[in-house]
Amino acid sequence: MNSPVIKPLRTLFTVLMLAGTVLVATAPLQTVSAQARALPDFTDLVDQVGPSVVNIRTMEKVSQRAQQGSGNPGEDEMLEFFRRFGLPAPSIPRQAPRQNRPQQGEEQPRGVGSGFILSSDGLIMTNAHVVDGADEVLVTLTDKREFKAKIIGADKRTDVAVVKIEATGLPAVKVGDVSRLRVGEWVMAIGSPFGLENTVTAGIVSAKQRDTGDYLPFIQTDVAINPGNSGGPLINMRGEVVGINSQIYSRSGGFMGISFSIPMDEAVRVSDQLRNSGRVSRGRIGVQIDQVSKDVAESIGLGKPVGAMVRGVESGGPADKAGVEAGDIITKFDGKVIDKSTDLPRIVGSTKPGNRSTVTVFRRGTYKDLGVTVAEIETDKPVAKAPAREEKPKPSFAGQPFGLTVAELTEAQKKELNLKGGARVEAVAEAAARAGLREGDVILAVANKEVMSVKDFESAIGTHDKNKPLTIMFRRGEWTQYVVIRLPR
After folding, report:
1. What's the pTM?
2. Is 464 a catalytic residue?
3. Does the annotation mark 230 as catalytic?
4. How far is CA 454 from CA 442, 468, 481, in A?
């Protein structure tokens, strides 16, 4: 005899036949009520925050280039969506007759986005990509009032923008504490997906501190976000805004359950600068960095793979003047721990230019505190060309058990690479090749011992226990990195 299926939300008891005995299992009404109470109810949140969410439409004057486009603003908006998220653009048949297209200099709709009211006097926050390139920004409130907005400032690096409308007594949002946000917590979004105003969607926080950019650790959620949601608020169950909906991950162009929001603490910091000066000033120290692998951390005595490995130092830059060297592992900046390499650009970037800071580095087994004066970020400099080949000096074969043949650096090579010394790799084989070393690499340290010449290399190799992995710090082009060479047993 088949046992009945238990359906606790539809019946209050279930009868089971066990060895001829009738057992009655009751499902208390209190349990059903508790389950009902545990389900999230967003109605009060919508009433509370909904009036603070606005619809943003942008207009642009038609240029000669735009006249050659699709002629359909909806199509252009969709194509922009595909371009933004790196998706292949679909083939769209032309629908607008050429004679009906707007003429050069005439304004036409450009896109639709969302935003929310920061202050009762008309400051509104949205995404930079929503207003980028717009000649006119139109803001529509939930009470259907429409205003022309002035762009106060926009920052493309963080995708944050602030616009202003001339109005007073507006319902401003409450800004939440992002540090209190927990993975698994319910959150809600309000925006205008595909131009459908005041659309509410909900989900949970999937992850925090998701690294998708140099300056911004995103909040990842499974809240449904689509074109037009950009710039709208991410709201916690206390009715506080904790993020700005900015991006999605998609292979099809549609929502796939992965959305990214700009943390509100970062957005407020950026918006404060935009309101004060119209631009964002970021700090820099002039280093190129990489992550620290587990093998490298263990082999150089760092223990755990933490910090940011310095692969290159800008000549004459703040880090260079402070004494930071290629191969250093930066573990702290102004006392803030660098757990992973992507933490450093964010922490340094948020430091005011001109500030005197302390950078802690791990170098050849010891920690050092160095004072550095933070400069303002500037356009990346072009990478210097690789040094030209010269006649090879006499090679040394002391490293052959590890698959290495090296030679002295010429004076021209030292000058070209801005190095005081090192040993140039002339040939690689076996273990060294498997570790990733190449001809032309410059060895700067062996087993945490500095190498200024072939003699230093031979000394370090000669005293190393061949039963243990050999750590090599080397320079390749503009970059410095580590490898660990293991001999077969």
Report:
1. 0.63
2. no
3. yes
4. 11, 22, 19
